[in-house]
Amino acid sequence: MTPVKWVKRILITIGVLVLVLLMAVVGILWYLKIPTTGAAMAAKAVCSAAFVAGRPAEVDTLMAQDVTPASPALFGLVSADLNAEEHYATGKFLGMFTRQASLTTDRGCVLGAPADPTAVPYQAAPPNPAPWPAGDAVAAETDWPAGVKGEELKSVVDEAFADSGDPLGANARGVAVVQDGKLLVVRSGKDIDNTNVALHGWSMTKTVAAMLAYKKLTEMGIDIETPVVEAFPEGKAPEWVEQWQADERAGITIADLMYMRAGLKIDEGYDPGSDVLDMLYNQPDMAGWAAEHPSEYPPGEYWEYLSAVSNILAEVVEAQFDTPEEYWTYPRTALYEPLGVKTATLETDEVGTWVGSSYLWASPGDWARFGQMMMDDGQWQGEQILPPGWWDLASTSAVAEGEGAGYGAQTWIPMNPVGGSCKATPGIPEDTLYMGGHWGQTVAMVPSRDAVVVRLGWTFNGEEAFDRCQFLSDVLKTLPE
Fold first, then answer.
1. Model confidence, pTM
2. CA-CA distance, 321 to 350, in Å (whole number)?
3. Which of 14, 75, 249, 336 is least crowded, fewest Cβ atoms below 10 Å from its Cβ?
């Protein structure tokens, strides 16, 4: 055989090996759903940022700020496009795997939904100059509670925004501080030019969606100790209810969903290929997907933080309405309008169920409204918005031992001496609760100080870059007792 033929044979062999290797890599990625997940994450993030948050519809900027830093290796393979006229975004992985998210009336940006040119994007209005909560402005310092250390508070907030815009830092995007019903501070980060821009709460959504669930279920006369399989009106039970009735999942109560004691076998990890990312970015029916998982522990006995069960709770609530439209508008009519909230959107999955685990957007001032109302046990400006008793449910530990002792009804109990996430941080009162979300989202409520502290950010490096407990302690040091 001539040298030329040997070289050709070697080159062909190398080419075949490279092709086989590439096919294997693509196969592994496909098995883990990484191409579709990556494309969906880009489409969803860009759509919501442009049309739900009210930020400028500049796709390269939104990708650079919100998507790529989360995983440069993954999202370096992902591109996105934005159609500002028909209100949808597409994400592409290696130009081959495409997903679309579309703005849909009363449902936010929905993966898999068709384009809806009639849907109206949210546009952040200039802040209302009236003092919060009637408007959006901070109270005059002459009206502040006596004893507020104004310069020290400013210093704490300045420090919180020191690396705003830096994806490797804490990257704060919004802060609001309320005491005695007066807004002392409201501020936006470097990439956000208006305090009325809606910011993503991630898992803080769980707390607000649970308040809506508590309100609607109470209106329907359904106690939270009711087994989930018995909570659906006749003819409205989804298919998975029959499966639950046949095994130990029949014993899961609504309270077990609220307190994360359902015992389902689901992985809460956030790595590529994880159950949570699969649910959020690949499943058209998130609640149905979650409910199909088998039991791992007996209902009511074991605490495990599972975003999926929050979406099952959202489907239980959905069944209580006569029409989808009544369900989709309920957050606005039952909560936003009574509180004067104008920036919030609770998004749904493709089949129309609230993504109660993860997809609520609101401005810092509106997150503070949610916190103030909750801290006052559902009262707002003399009106009872929620049925009394929600604060007690939220501040009651899910279990007596372990991390779950620091968790109430879709709400964190940070100073619980057994499982509280802030129990080692001095300066935080024992009665504190907080809504908590991915990447540092926090709405802390401190009844003994009549204070609400809101912090939102895009903190990719987690606790290495931002310590929510220390931030809360530092803010409270500047407020009178």
1. 0.94
2. 18
3. 14
